Amino acid sequence: MNTTRPEPITPDPAPAAADAGRIVLLTTSHRVAPGLLSWPAWQALRAADRVLCADGAHPQLPYLREAGTAVDEAAPTAEELVDACAGGRTVVVVATGEGEPALTDGLARLAGSGRVRMPELELLPASYDLPGARLLDLVQVMDRIRAECPWSSRQTHRGLAKYGIEEAYELVEAIEEGDRDELREELGDVLLQVVFHARIAEEDPEAPFSIDDVAGGIVAKLIHRHPHVFGDETASTPEEVKEHWLRTKAVEKRRESVTDGIPLAQPGLALAAKLASRVRTAGLGVPLPQAPGIGYELLALAARAEAEGVDPEAALRAAARAYRDAVRAAEGVAK
Fold it and tell me: Could you report the per-residue pLDDT of 147-158, keeping only the tens digit for each?
């Protein structure tokens, strides 16, 4: 970004004319490769009488000049810009990353004064953010934090593990509470954990990998496990989709048992339901173990819930919240 203010531009000599001209404010996104501009943007640039840009380090400038577009590094005032359009000229202003708030505010004041015949003003987006483009910002911010923050620069996968669990539970709570604002925030916190771990992984001397490797891996996995979407197989019900998924996963992991890959450290009800789900999906007629004790009773309840399409963990949390509300109500009466 230039730190010194360029000399004011002066309008080209032009015959007096009633046509006030045209100003095109060209906006671009830094999240796409420089030079990838829309066709209307290139048309406007080629048809312009002058092209101006206040930022001499703007990433688009080398590509515009390479394409034969002359760009003046100038930061005109609103009055100067209006004068430059006199005689029906078109001036394109390549906006900086921050936009051109001072310029647009000045143009608005001129238009409101009624003293000046204003040129036609057009806002033309020259490049757009693709879906997911803000993830690039997150990666860049994480890079800087990892390099400059005394706390973040010392973190390890093991040290961050507990936060992954906490953020996952907070996400589940936001979903169950139906709080949309909280849901958006908690999704961001979970995403941060992924990006943070991937950034740490880049520094591993033995087996480094990056966020691109993480994303590439899950893309390949999703395509491979959805042959009914990306391949020749068909699936018309959720059950058939799940069958495809489990069969493909078993081949990928070379698993010998339907119980392979089930994390035993997860909460007990979720563990019991997952085991019951694997057994039922595989069509195995394995009866539940019968023995006295609360554990076996809970196992039977979890298996029953899974068979009925109920998440036992979510059901118990809902009941626990109802119990909490009842306790609070009783405490309010007592007070």
Answer: 999 999 999 999
Q: Does the pTM exceed 0.85?
A: no
Report residue 237 as tokens: 């019900």
Q: Long-range pairs for 63-72 at CB < 8 Å and ≥24 separation?
A: 63/34, 63/35, 64/94, 67/35, 67/42, 69/45, 72/9
DSSP secondary structure of 146-195:
HHH-TTGGG--HHHHHHHHHHHHHHHHHHHHHT-HHHHHHHHHHHHHHHH
Q: Which two tokens stand for residue 246?
A: 């489990």
Domain containing residue 143: 131-210
Q: Residue 22 is encoded by which pair of tokens? A: 């045209």
- Buried b / exposed e over 302-312, threshold 16 CB at 10 Å, is bbebbeeeeeb
- Hey, what are 142's tokens? 């994480």
> Does one domain contain both 104 and 164?
no
- Please check the confidence at residue 26 and state whether its pLDDT lies above 70: yes
Cα–Cα nearest to 49, from 78, 23, 16, 17: 23
Specify whether the CB–CB gap between 124 and 42 falls below 8 A: no
* One domain, residues 30 and 93: yes
Q: How many domains does the chain have?
A: 2
SS3 assignment for 44-57 = HHHHCCEEECCCCC
DSSP letter, residue 264: T
